[in-house]
Amino acid sequence: MNNRTYKGLRLFIVVFLFVSVVFPLISLLLNIEFADFGKVLSSPQFSDMMFNSIVATGASTIISVTIAFILAWCVNRSNIKFKAILAVLFTLPMLIPSISHGMGLVLLLGSNGLLTNLLGINIELYGFTGIILGSILYSFPVAFLMLTDIFKYEDYTTYEAAQVLGLTKKQQFTTITLPNMRKTMISVIFAVFTMIFTDYGVPLVVGGTVMTLPVYMYREVIGLLNFSTGAIIGLVLLIPAFVAFIIDLKAEENGNTSTITKGYIITKNKARDVFSSIYCIVVLVIISLPILAFALLSVVKQYPIDMSFSLENIAQAFDLGVGMYLQNSLAISLVTALVGLCTIYFTAYINARSKKTFTNGMIHLISMLSLAVPGVVLGLCYVLFFKGTFIYGTLAIIVLVNTIHFFASPYLLAYNSLSKFNKNMEDISETMGISKMRMLLDVYVPCTRETIIEIFSYLFVNAMVTISAVSFLANFKNMPIALMIPQFDSQSLIEATAFISLLILFVNITVKLAIYLLKRHIAKQEV
Amino acid sequence: MEILKDDIKLSVRGLYKKYDGKDVLNRISFDVKQGEFLSVLGPSGCGKTTLLRILIGLETQTDGEILIDGKDVSKLKPNERGMGIIFQNYALFPNMTVFENVEYALKLNKELKFQSKAIAERTLEQIGMMEHKDKKPNQLSGGQQQRVAIARTLALNPKVILLDEPISALDVTNREIMKKELKDIQKKFNSTMIFITHEQEEAFYLADRIMVMSEGNIEQLDTPKNIYDNPANKYVEDFVLAHLDQKLESLLKCTGKIAHE
Lengths: 527, 261
Ligand SMILES: Nc1ncnc2c1ncn2[C@@H]1O[C@H](COP(=O)(O)OP(=O)(O)OP(=O)(O)O)[C@@H](O)[C@H]1O
Ligand SMILES: [Mg+2]
Description:
The complex is a heterodimer. By secondary structure, chain A is mainly α. Chain A contains 24 helices and two strands.
């Protein structure tokens, strides 16, 4: 193996990124008819949808980040029990599709919902209420994970200094904690906002008459094949993600100065611990309610008329092809995880361990660009660019779109862990006649096994739950199982959607568990 | 004269390097003899690292040539020049044991792969690291890691070994130990070494000859004694001698005090 292999693969990556990112994005722009531009943007319908989207997203973002912030604080800054398990449980909602959160609300709070009947309450779910509630459920775990990072990686020595200076807890919070968090907070807010702003899953099932931009785009493209209008809306959806992208790039340039010298020391405080425990329990109950609803609906005869145990619904779901689509999804997720892992890891290797050339800089930028392209927009780009090619309508295009859709985060993960190695490593290998590919396989891969496993799991789970980028590309043959939810919902097969959500959750938990065991096994080996 | 010429291992002719329009090396020329320990001494930024990187081929010179055993190696790849390099930060392979670190490049070498095990063992033995052979780099002290890095380079039997401030990262005690050890190793293997440093005492302690550099120029190239006795110019006097004298003075003061009490 010599450096020709490396150079060949590098060239392949460049071509790959152009074909799968740059060209599809360009074809989005080329497909806009300028006459439509003014027509779409100036219609009263558009300003209504824009208003709906911004109000719903804004409100959801504020509430979601607040809930997540308090939750991260409770888990990281108190002495409650079972912290590690709690932290995992709070991310469970990330293992089901966004649309499942909407369905969960329907099952619980809809006109015939479990809680509606049980408590005799009557919430007008459909509309802003539903969208906001669903979006919160869908997004707060992501915010929780990001915020946990700041709490974890705070340097305690600054707090010690503050104590010496006699600052009160409240003063410490406003002078140290908040400023420390500003940068991450901005990232979190943008990430959550973008996530909700571009999601069609939740508003599709609980939006009622409140039409948001992604739902409109979804209907225009899927129902009416109106690509030009779809592309214009897509362009609008790009805006917040793009702004976030630019801000993040700027932040990255400034470099992260994370030199922790001392972890946070948690003092004794009974009141705080009691509050934290109650808060965590409440959140946990709210998370588990929809899951319990899915489980219940899957195994009763006919809700709410006949609540006796029955596997009829499950059998019916399999009759409707759930088995085949589950197989599809497993294949898609597995191949996405493997193909994505190899491409992403190698791309990160190019940039982390070679000289900063123009080409490498470009590869880096394109790799990060996927952060700025929402799933639905990427999906539409793919329709426009790949329609009519041999790959269109196959499992391969689903794998491809997933790989690109989820490229940036694992790329950064790999990039960061590969950047940590000694900067003279390549000088040494070059002078000793060790090729770049050998270094990759013999040194870097074994040293970054944890990162590799992490990337695999991230890609698998996301490919399993995604409904955005794949929505326009799936047909009856290559459809992933998550897309059966909107389909069954439109046919009022509520029980089947519940079962599918449960099934996806089950697969993802199994994978996560396997990954956890694998990691523990590796950690044990290393001792 | 003929015999003397044979004795020359490395020959640098008119080496010139320009970075972004700035001259970093100003057409310097010098020779290094077989088995010689040459120290390159100069302040930060004077081009020492650049010189080493060009010698081994990690950077390309703007002009000039590099001869080893009379043969121009300027166009060869770094691994074809018969040189080895050792850095301040060791750059060991973190996932491999001490033994694997030394053996790895040998195993990939077409000619050496059949003896890789024996060579690795012998080298570790000679460097006194055999008892640690199954440890990972993160289980070793800085000095031990540097020994492994040296063994890894020696195992490939390079004609010239380049060292870029190899002991600056160590604490004072270990630095003293490694300094002695480096000299022993050099004698034992009869290696030709070029050793970069910005520490005057280090250069004077280790070197057969010292090359004093300033901003891409060679100010003087001679034995420590000759440099001390006859500094070529004001620069050498200020940078080398003044510093050494200062050190000496403070040493004398200390010992004088002790003697007094
Ligand atoms: N890749 C590069 N691009 C541009 N300029 C460079 C590059 N590498 C080195 N230089 C410049 O060349 C000069 C010499 O650098 P070099 O690293 O050789 O110095 P040095 O003598 O090894 O210094 P130190 O003792 O600090 O290691 C410096 O002015 C440096 O800024
Ligand atoms: Mg240097």
